Structures are given as C-alpha cells and as structure tokens.
Automatic annotation (TrEMBL):
Name listed for the protein in its UniProt record: Cobalt transport protein CbiN
InterPro entries, alphabetized: CbiN
Gene designation: cbiN
Keyword Cell membrane applies: yes
Entry GO CC: plasma membrane
Domain of life (superkingdom): Bacteria
HAMAP family reported for this sequence: CbiN (MF_00330)
Keywords: Cell membrane, Cobalamin biosynthesis, Cobalt, Cobalt transport, Ion transport, Membrane, Transmembrane, Transmembrane helix, Transport
Transmembrane stretches, start-end: 12-31, 69-89
A molecular function GO annotation: cobalt ion transmembrane transporter activity
Locations listed in the record: Cell membrane
Subunit structure, as described in the record: Forms an energy-coupling factor (ECF) transporter complex composed of an ATP-binding protein (A component, CbiO), a transmembrane protein (T component, CbiQ) and 2 possible substrate-capture proteins (S components, CbiM and CbiN) of unknown stoichimetry.
Role according to the record: Part of the energy-coupling factor (ECF) transporter complex CbiMNOQ involved in cobalt import.
Pathway stated in the Swiss-Prot or TrEMBL entry: Cofactor biosynthesis; adenosylcobalamin biosynthesis
C-alpha cells in the first residue's frame, strides 16, 4: 500500500470517529447523557431502598465540572501511556528491521 492510500485511510478513520462521536449529540435531541454511576445507584435503590454503601469517597469534589475534569485528565493520561507503549514497540520493531536489513 502506498503512502497516499495510507493517508487517505487514516483521514477516513478520523472522520468516522468524529461522526460516531457527534451522531448521538445531533440525532438525540434533549437526551440526558448521564454516567453509569448514577444509573447504577438508581437501579440499586429501586431494587433495595435500604441499601447503604460500604464506604464513602475519600475525596468529595466540589462540583460535577471538577469531576469531569478529573475524568478527562485520567483518560488523557491513560491514552498517553498507551500511545507511548505503542510508539516504543513500533520503534523497536523498526530498529530490528533496520538491523536485519544491514
């Protein structure tokens, strides 16, 4: 596969990801996009109203915005680690290929 075809495939993938991420926001008007934690808590209280959690959070965050920020930071750090590992192995593979071809 030549480099031009590879670039067009990459752009097609990027556009597909953007469309998949934006589609629910465009097509589902007025929907409440809540997290799984809130849904799980609601389901538990419906099943067993007297349920008490085993422990409370160590840190109470001041607002939902701060909670979202912390989640985004965690996701970015995880993506950075995964990207670093993939790049590391790709670089090692390229290095071995170059050593074998010499």
């Amino acid at each position: 596969m030549n480099q031009q075809t590879s670039k067009s495939h990459n752009w097609l993938l990027v556009c597909s990801v953007i469309v998949l991420a934006a589609a629910p926001l465009v097509f589902i008007k007025g929907a409440e996009f809540s997290g799984a934690d809130g849904q799980a808590e609601k389901a538990i209280t419906e099943i067993q109203p007297e349920y008490k959690p085993w422990f409370n959070s160590l840190i109470e965050l001041p607002s939902g915005e701060v909670e979202s920020l912390m989640f985004a930071v965690q996701a970015a750090a995880g993506a950075g680690v995964v990207g670093y590992v993939i790049g590391l192995y790709k670089g090692r593979s390229e290095q071995r290929k170059n050593e074998n071809s010499d």
